[in-house]
Amino acid sequence: MTPRSGRALATVVLAAVLAGCGGPGSEAGGGRASGGNGPARHATTAPPQPSAEPVRPLARSEPVGLRIPAIGVDTPVMRLGLASDGTVEVPPVTDDDLAGWYRHSPTPGQVGPSVVLGHVTVGSHGDGVFRRLARLHRGDRVEARLANGTAAEFAVIEVRTVAKAEFPTDDVYGDVDRPELRLITCGGPRSGDEYRDNVIVFAELTATTSARSPAVS
Asked: Fewer CB atoms < 10 Å away: N or C end of the chain?
């Protein structure tokens, strides 16, 4: 399946908020937001700058795992699609919380924005897989393990906390001319099972390696 362009992707999902903050009665954090590019409430890094030496893009291969050493994340990755109301699905609220890759976005390492969601909390189960996402800083490493045995390594270029009503759809879904990654969860003040904001991490591809080491004779 050929991934859709960023602009087409934004249209398909109808500017859905990629929330990732489910709890009892919260519909797992799904919802909608305006398509405007509202200002960020908080940014932990400087605006993204292009790399001096772009890395060659990878062929399509679905992600099966995600590692973020700086915040102790090492998680399998499940596939996500669209809910019946046109919003992006989020991982189920369970005690073995996983990250989820939105299957209508490019796979990690392909040209374009690959989108991965995770919960910050999972109701009565406690903390979610992306509970520390907002602590990332520019330069922190994110590794996506792919089904074909390749590992795509990314570096964080920006971290934003934005109001859900000001979700920056174009920045998240919009076309880019290099492989990038978006990690999204909830953040900000909490009211019951809902959070006011989204935390969005922007990262760029910096290296690719074989995740399966050859046997040594």
From this structure: C
Q: Which residue has the higher pLDDT, 119 or 22?
A: 119
Query: Using one digit for the tens of pLDDT, what is the confidence trace for 57-103?
Result: 999 999 999 999 999 999 999 999 998 888 888 887 765 678 999 99
Across 1-22, b (16+ Cβ under 10 Å) vs e yields: eebbebeebbeebebbbbbbbb
DSSP H or E run through 11: helix 6-12
Inform me whether the pLDDT recorded for 107 exceeds 60.
Answer: yes
pTM, to two decimals: 0.78
User: CA nearest 190: which of 42, 20, 21, 27?
Assistant: 21
Number of structural domains the chain divides into: 1
H-state helical runs in 162-216: 169-173
CATH number, domain with residue 12: 2.40.260.10
Report yes or no on 215 lying in a domain: no
Look at residue 1 and tell me if it is in a domain.
no
Note whether residue 166 is domain-resident: yes
What the block records as the tokens of 205 is 């591809």
C-alpha–C-alpha distance, residues 17 and 167, integer Å: 7
Task: Determine the structural domain holding residue 70 and report its residue range.
Answer: 6-46+58-210
pLDDT above 90: percentage of residues in the chain: 52
On whether residue 174 sits in a domain, the answer given is yes
Distant-in-sequence, close-in-space partners of 47: CB < 8 Å, separation ≥ 6: 158
